[in-house]
Amino acid sequence: MNFCSDNVVGVSPEIMAALLAASHGVSMPYGNDDCTQRLNFLFSELFETEVVVFPVATGTAANALALSVMTPPFGAIYCHHQSHIHSDECGAPEFFTGGAKLVTLPGEHGKIDAIDLATALARAGTGVVHHVQPATVSLSQVTEAGTVYSIDEVSQIAEVAHAHQLNLHMDGARFANAVVSLGCTPADVTWRAGVDVLSFGATKNGAMAAEAVVFFNRDLANTFRYRLKRSGHLFSKMQFLSVQLEAYIKNDLWRKNATHANQMAKQLAQKLTILPGVTLCHPVEANEIFIQMPEQVIINLIADGFKFYRWDGEDSTTVRLITAFNTQEEDVRAFSEAAKAHCTRHLSLSIS
């Protein structure tokens, strides 16, 4: 009953079967295998437009390398102050861009706003040699608050970015969860809304270790293969990344897994938010829940053996819970029932 992350769970059986099948026979190395060669076609079908796709093993690599072809060393990348590229990637975007600056923006529930972005760009000093030059906007989809940008919100931000000749990147570590939440197609919330490059996540939703960088603006992909090699992400046995991605998008496995994870989060949130002393911090729009709980309730849940993160430090009463593609309804029930018992006891002690 570990709700720390969707990274703590195992691998989808369909993806594991594909890995086992790929272990037989021989394949050409460095992405020249048949499966890797099929990815451009498969992803173009998925996104309903011609794309260029590169497999990588981690989300940090996907983000940092994507940003490196979108942003010069003297450029600025605009992102939310809670974004993964700013808070959790150990300076990788700055390193792989050769020194670009991350410029953070505020915004409720993990989202930046098109008006705030336009205001920041108007004051950026474009063309002034003393300032970093605006180059890229990066959106997290799902956000670090567990919320989802609507298609209109992405479109409005893209309109501002493109009006200032900026590229638009989307960090889609939980992209499938966002698409399921929106009830749209992958195309609707990416290139049709103005996204130039997507970091397409699979690891959090059932893969072993597989992400992809998807170029809708194919001109930006011209130098990417060299950056892939230079960064150590041109795998000699690339087929073992590619077969994961192929199995993930075939037969809508990505959608099935994300649908289950989102449903489990919704069920858990509904059970928790009716409890005394529990406050929801952000809307639950995908598979993440941020709630505030009494300190003693948190201590008791940890003592019961449940695992989750305190979100703002070890003394914080804000808790993050994440459900996954294989979260069991029994685990959701067990957590909510334990939380109910502890909250009721805490309320009784407070009154007495």
Describe the structure.
This protein is of the alpha/beta class and 352 residues long. It folds into 2 domains: 13-253, Aspartate Aminotransferase, domain 2 (3-Layer(aba) Sandwich), CATH 3.40.640; 257-351, Aspartate Aminotransferase, domain 1 (Alpha-Beta Complex). Helices cover 41% and strands 15% of the residues. It has 13 helices and 11 strands. A 7-stranded mixed beta sheet has the order 1-7-6-5-4-2-3, sandwiched between helices. Strands 8-9-11-10 form a 4-stranded antiparallel beta sheet, with helices on one face. β5 (167-172), α8 and β6 (197-201) form a beta-alpha-beta unit. α1 runs antiparallel to α10, α2 runs parallel beside α10 (239-249) and α11 runs parallel beside α13 (329-351). It starts with 12 loop residues before the first helix and ends with a helix.
Detail the topology: elements first, then pairings.
Elements: H1 13-22, H2 34-47, E1 52-56, H3 59-70, E2 75-80, H4 84-87, H5 92-97, E3 101-105, H6 114-122, E4 133-140, H7 151-163, E5 167-172, H8 175-182, E6 197-201, E7 211-215, H9 224-230, H10 239-249, H11 253-272, E8 279-280, E9 288-292, H12 295-303, E10 309-310, E11 318-322, H13 329-351
Parallel strand pairs: 2-3, 2-4, 4-5, 5-6
Antiparallel strand pairs: 1-7, 6-7, 8-9, 9-11, 10-11
